[in-house]
Fold:
Amino acid sequence: MDLETLTRRLGPDVLARPRVAVDAMGGDHAPEEVVRGAVDWARLHPDVDVLLVGDEPRIRAFIDAPLPSHVTIVQASEIVGMDESAATAVRRKRDASINVCMRLVREGRADAVVTAGHTGAGVASAILHLGRLPGVDRPALAIQMVTDRGPFVLLDIGATTDANGRNLSQYARMGALYAERVLGVEDPSVALLSIGEERGKGDLRVQEATVLLDRMDVRFIGNVEGRDLPRHPADIVVCDASVGNVVMKFFEGLSSAIFDMLRTEFQRKPWGPIGYLFMRPGLGRIRRRFDYERLGGSPLLGVKGTVLITHGRARRRMIGYAVEVGALAARARIPESIAAAMVADGLGRSSPDQGAAEATATPEDPATVPGGAA
Structure:
């Protein structure tokens, strides 16, 4: 989530002192990097309460100085491992750190959750403890992708796989509401990511979503292809989680590879170092634009609470940005904005199968991306 955009959009009716529950045990480098990143950030932001959720002795081992008064440790005795079946572990391990985080929000003791843990576990726990917004069958993870003409919103990037056309159309509506109400994009355009730009071209779910989106009150412009993405083809681009996750990570990997190649070229003597002196200011601006760690995390749209999921491999710098995004998202009241807009649009009604889904939330619901955070 773009910090500068969200900061500019915050109006006077915002949460004065947000409370952010951080899953201290979630992630490839937890608890050390998560704890150090969250505490370092908290020391610089005394206006936000941070709750570190996890095994207290392990958390305290990585706190080098007295804990700030606005940072609290909340005990959680269990962990959902990155290799575990998400929904099964969430149901079996009631005292898992991610479950405790979600219950803090449900009970009104926290305003947002930040986790670098198992994406599937985060999604399953949010559905189980917070529930879906009315009219939403499946939640979706959204991210702002950087382009030469400003960022666009890509979703879903990892919440639930095997989406159908109805799911894609709901992602589009949530994405449009998020872009309009939170990011300030007027009359945002919506496109489906597919194998061809011709309207309706693609698999069955794309064809189904095309029919549904043509009937909805969104500015649907049809399909876009992967090659279009770096040029900001639409304000919101919608796809299944598997596709979105691959696209996002390809973008990140490609940007890192390009900067590595540039670094190698600038080290070539005699002209490389000289060229770098002239190019350094511009390269710095480009590097800052493509610094994905500054995005912090991805909001989980469609649940009754503010949930930010960041990279499983996040280290302390990205954790700090994730906590900041969580605090800003809590202040922005994103779920409330989406719910109110859907009600106003006549969409805030549960679908026929939503009630049963809420009640069961079986290990297969949601289908999840295995192996960690998006």
Notes: The domain at 3-260+280-360 is CATH 3.40.718.10 (Isopropylmalate Dehydrogenase).
